[in-house]
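ok trying this again, last paste got cut off
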Amino acid sequence: MIVLMGITVASLDRLPIVSTPYGCAFESLPPITSLFWVPALVVEPILCMLVLWKAIGVLNGRTELSALLARDRILMSKSIFAELTSMLVAWLVDPLYVSFFFPWTIAFPSLFGGRLLLNIRRHFEPPEAPEDIEMAVTSTTLQ
């Protein structure tokens, strides 16, 4: 990865980002920079397979928490792999299209990380009785 960054920086003669009506776009980058996504595209399926292997390996002694963690991690791996694949294809077609996928790059880890934390919290939280739930309503009047 460091070698790839070094080759890219060495081949730049100016800042390769231009402003377009659709956002920022990259231009004049060497085609080898599409390899930027390859390490992540290799690691994500490996992580997904390791989680599957671990989840299947402890199938008999599996707890609800381990099933929850495995389910969320597999869902996260598949989504991030699909997003990275989309970015790679967009980069190879036209680097301008990569800007359409940048919001997902930020959203997926945040979304799935929050989902994982909420599921863990729900797992360890004691169940509440229905009579303990209150609904507060306030009313205001204009004078």
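PB: full thing came through this time. The helical segments are 2-11, 38-57, 64-93, 102-124.
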